């Protein structure tokens, strides 16, 4: 497609003009503090602003400086992140804070090329921090920007392909304002998030509609093009909720699988929904009760099907159970401490349904 059909300068001016006329008050806007900008960008990856905003406030309250975050225990960081999903972001956030505090004396890098070397900081986040905090002329390209550029300039290249990413980045770098790179980056992201939205965009009130390729060629619903090659895997999980004498049995999840570092219950993974599993416990007198509700939880590459069984064990077996739990890599947690554990959303949903 020919990118020259829309004048670059006119495009940038229209985006900035719309942004200035339609301000959105967000706590990280107007600041040049790289810590707060970095925090907001990591939280907002794969998260809507409305969902991410309370987490941003929690983090800047609990960890007002990169030093506070760097010195926090990982478990506390994961607990604060609970409910946001994609927990590798939280672990990378914590690791990166330690990099900046301990290796760089608390100083954030001030250029795209240095920022992208940090743990968990990709090209989009590096461009956002370098332009917002340091005025570097480096264009951000996120889902919103892909959508705006694909529609306005009529680009049919697959945005998930290497070729597409290079093509969009090259165009975005040509379009970015020379004088206000940070403001322009915020403007185009906002434009995509609020006006040029995925479904039912507000084309009639769009300042670019007369020069928009997708609008004039009736292709708004067809652009951008994304060929999804990701195969979604189904997993069947049977959790065992074991209680004894005011304590519950929990397991901290290992690396190499989903939810690393978070806490859930002992489980058996099944080949299919029908397969039945029992748990080999060290005591015989026990009643197993299956909860009637089945749970379905979607992750980016996995579809989880979960069921829960409850096992109440007489308090006189607590010492025996404690020994078994330690041998099996589990831990006994007193009921009043459960709230402090960092747990995946699936487990939180189950506990909420039980009124816990």
Automatic annotation (TrEMBL):
SMART domains: ENDO3c (SM00478). The keyword DNA damage applies. It holds the Pfam family NUDIX_4. It catalyses: Hydrolyzes free adenine bases from 7,8-dihydro-8-oxoguanine:adenine mismatched double-stranded DNA, leaving an apurinic site. Keywords: 4Fe-4S, DNA damage, DNA repair, Glycosidase, Hydrolase, Iron, Iron-sulfur, Metal-binding. Residues 43-194 form the HhH-GPD domain. SUPFAM superfamilies: DNA-glycosylase (SSF48150), Nudix (SSF55811). InterPro entries: A/G_AdeGlyc_MutY, DNA_glycosylase, HhH-GPD_domain, HhH_base_excis_C, HhH_motif, MIG/MutY, MutY_C, NUDIX_hydrolase-like_dom_sf. One of its GO terms (molecular function) is 4 iron, 4 sulfur cluster binding. Belongs to the Nth/MutY family. Adenine glycosylase active on G-A mispairs. MutY also corrects error-prone DNA synthesis past GO lesions which are due to the oxidatively damaged form of guanine: 7,8-dihydro-8-oxoguanine (8-oxo-dGTP). This is Adenine DNA glycosylase.
């Amino acid at each position: 497609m020919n990118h020259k059909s829309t004048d670059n300068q006119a495009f940038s001016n229209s985006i900035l003009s719309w942004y200035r006329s339609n301000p959105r008050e967000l706590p990280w806007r107007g600041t040049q503090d790289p810590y707060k900008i970095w925090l907001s960008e990591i939280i907002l990856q794969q998260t809507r602003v409305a969902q991410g905003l309370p987490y941003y406030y929690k983090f800047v309250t609990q960890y007002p400086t990169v030093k506070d975050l760097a010195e926090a225990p990982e478990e506390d960081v994961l607990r604060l992140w609970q409910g946001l999903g994609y927990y590798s972001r939280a672990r990378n956030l914590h690791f990166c804070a330690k990099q900046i505090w301990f290796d760089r004396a608390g100083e954030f890098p001030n250029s795209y090329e240095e920022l992208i070397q940090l743990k968990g900081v990709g090209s989009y986040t590096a461009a956002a921090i370098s332009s917002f905090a340091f005025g570097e002329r480096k264009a951000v390209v996120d889902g919103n920007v892909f959508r705006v550029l694909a529609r306005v300039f009529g680009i049919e290249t697959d945005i998930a392909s290497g070729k597409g990413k290079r093509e969009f980045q090259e165009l975005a770098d040509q379009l970015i304002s020379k004088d206000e790179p940070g403001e322009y980056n915020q403007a185009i992201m906002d434009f995509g998030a609020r006006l040029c939205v995925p479904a039912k965009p507000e084309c009639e009130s769009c300042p670019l509609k007369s020069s928009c390729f997708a609008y004039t060629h009736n292709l708004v619903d067809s652009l951008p093009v994304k060929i999804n090659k990701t195969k979604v895997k189904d997993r069947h999980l049977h959790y065992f909720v074991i209680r004894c004498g005011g304590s519950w049995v929990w397991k901290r999840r290992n690396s190499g699988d989903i939810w690393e570092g978070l806490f859930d219950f002992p489980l058996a993974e099944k080949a299919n929904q029908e397969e039945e599993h029992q748990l080999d416990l060290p005591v015989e007198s026990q009643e197993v009760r299956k909860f009637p509700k089945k749970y379905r939880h979607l992750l980016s590459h996995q579809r989880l099907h979960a069921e829960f069984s409850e096992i109440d064990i007489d308090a006189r077996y607590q010492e025996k159970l404690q020994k078994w739990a330690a041998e099996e890599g589990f831990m006994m947690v007193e009921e009043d401490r459960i709230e402090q554990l960092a747990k995946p959303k699936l487990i939180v949903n189950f506990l909420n349904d039980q009124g816990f």
